[in-house]
UniProtKB/TrEMBL annotation:
Keywords: Hydrolase
Record has Hydrolase as a keyword: yes
Lineage: Eukaryota, Viridiplantae, Streptophyta, Embryophyta, Tracheophyta
Organism: Dioscorea alata (Purple yam)
Protein name: Deoxyribonuclease V protein
The keyword Hydrolase is annotated on this UniProt entry: yes
Assigned EC number: 3.1.21.7
EC top class named in words: hydrolase
Length: 266
């Protein structure tokens, strides 16, 4: 665990856009992995057992209410079959950069990458084969949100799961709500998010029975939207998929404990 600040050099939003555009060139928007999901592909029982997706990671960052620059990043790994937590990593840092809309990755990606690098360098047997990020992927004003940014940096299949909708290409929360209420979509729990340009940005999903607030699923890296939707559905006990939900819960607990221990040290 680190409690020292992460250093950032001075950057303008133009610099950040250039970095995003550079990383964007490496983005892969289709399935690029060797594992399978047993409940989706049972064409070969032997194959599915050997090549099953085993470990799904979820990441989230929580902040102290008293000091929003103090952040706790959590990486939680769940068993893909049972959704039980098999590993967790935390890092507490003091961020030197404020949140700037559209540039969340420059605030949060370095800590998340650090947690994954730590697991990789120690050859941790629970290193995730797939990552879910509490944030958007393609569903972003420049088509390159936090999930894409992290995915390219760590070279993992990544799914972006947002709690709120970025207003992109004519898409708004009210327009999505109207789509769900439309007669032709009666009973549907999934709406494809197609912008005015005709581009598919992601999907709005009512992830549990009776849910009124959708979550927003989009491609992060090395996985298609279809596969992303299927995996998110399999991971939802509640509105938020379990890997991210557990990362959120545990990061909040951890940073409060950290705050308490820091107070006692003074």
């Amino acid at each position: 665990m680190m409690d020292h600040p992460i250093e950032y050099s001075e950057h303008t939003t133009e610099d950040w856009i250039n970095v995003q555009e550079s990383l964007k060139q490496k983005l892969i928007l289709e399935d690029c992995f060797t594992w399978t999901i047993s409940s989706l592909d049972m064409s070969s029982v032997e194959n599915s057992r050997e090549n099953n997706l085993k470990f799904i990671g979820g990441v989230d960052v929580s902040f102290l209410k008293e000091d929003p620059s103090m952040a706790c990043a959590a990486l939680v790994v769940v068993d893909a079959e049972t959704l039980d937590v098999v590993h967790e990593e935390f890092d507490v840092v003091q961020l030197q950069i404020p949140y700037v809309p559209g540039f969340l990755a420059f605030r949060e990606a370095p800590i998340l990458q650090g947690l994954l690098d730590k697991m990789k360098q120690s050859a941790n047997p629970f290193y995730p084969q797939l990552l879910m990020v509490d944030g958007n992927g393609l569903l972003h004003p420049r088509g390159f949100g936090l999930a894409c940014h992290v995915g390219v940096l760590v070279d993992l299949p990544v799914i972006g799961v947002g709690k709120n909708l970025h207003h992109v290409d004519g898409l708004t929360q009210s327009s999505v709500r109207k789509l769900f209420e439309a007669k032709e979509n009666n009973g549907k729990d999934l709406i494809c998010l197609v912008g005015k340009s005709g581009r598919v940005w992601g999907a709005a999903m009512r992830s549990t029975h009776g849910s009124t607030k959708p979550i927003y699923v989009s491609i992060g890296h090395r996985i298609s939207l279809d596969s992303s939707i299927k995996i998110v559905k399999l991971c939802c006990k509640f509105r938020i998929p379990e890997p991210i939900r557990q990362a959120d819960i545990r990061s909040r607990i951890f940073i409060q404990q950290f705050k308490g221990s820091s107070s006692m040290d003074k």
